Amino acid sequence: MAPMAVVKEPGLTHRQRQAMQTRTLIVDAARSLFVSRGYAATSLEAVAEMAGVASRTVYSVFGTKKALLGAICEAWLAEAGIPESIAEGLREPDLRRRLLIVARASRRQWELERGTCALLQGAAASDAEVARMLAGWKEDRGRGWRSVVEGSESQLRPGVDARRAVALIRALTPWEVYLELVPGEGWTADDYEEWLGGMLTDLLLPPR
C-alpha cells in the first residue's frame, strides 16, 4: 500500500485533519484488500485490522462495504483529476480541444485504476446493490460524455449528430479498450492518449 499522504488542508482543526487521515487509511486498506482478496471475501473487520483502527471506527465512518467501495472510487477519480478535467472541458468552446481533454482524462483514469475496475466487476457479480450502483455510475459517465458535445453540435462532422457522437465516445473510451491496447499490445499510456485523441477528432470533426 502506498504511504498515506499528510493532510495539510488550510483552516482545518487538528481533529479534522486526524479524521481525514483516518478515512484515507481505511480507504487505502480497503482498496488493497478488496483487490487482493475480493470484495465478497473481505470483512470490515479485516479492513480495520489492516488500517490499524478499531472496527467501530470503520463502521462509524462508512457503515457498509458498499459505502466504502464508493469512497474508493471517489478517491480514484480525484487522484486522476477527473472532476477538474470535466470542468476544464466544459469551459472550452472548441470541440477539438474538448475531445483531446477527453482523451487525456480517459488515459489518466485507466492508468491509475490499479485493479479497481476488476474489483468493481467482481463486486457487482456478487452483490446486486453494487451492480445497481455500478450501472448508475455508467449512466453518469454517459451523461458526462453528452456534456462534451452539448453546445458544440455545429462543430461536428456532417452526418454525425450529437447522439452518434456520444455513442462513438462511449465506444472508444472504456477500460476494456485501454486494457487491450496498453498491457495487451504493449502500448504506452502516451500512445493510447494520442491514438484516442486522433480517433475522436477524425471521427467526429470535419477534416482540416
Would you give an account of this structure?
This protein is an all-alpha fold. The protein is 72% helix and 0% strand. Helix 1 (14-37) crosses helix 4 (65-80), helix 7 packs across helix 8 (128-149) and helix 8 packs across helix 9 (162-172).
Shape: elongated
Oligomer: single chain
Number of strands: 0
Count of DSSP-assigned helices: 11
Strand content: under 5%
Overall helicity: over 70%
Main beta-sheet annotation: none
Give the termini distance in whole angstroms: 47 Å
Compact overview of the structure:
The protein is mostly helical. The protein is built from eleven helices and no strands. Helix 2 (44-51) packs across helix 3 (55-61).
Task: Sum up the structure in keywords.
208 residues, mainly alpha, 11 helices, disordered N terminus
Compile the SSE list and pairings.
Blueprint: H1 14-37, H2 44-51, H3 55-61, H4 65-80, H5 82-91, H6 95-111, H7 116-126, H8 128-149, H9 162-172, H10 175-181, H11 189-204
Helix pairs in contact: 1-2, 1-4, 2-3, 5-6, 6-11, 7-8, 8-9, 9-11
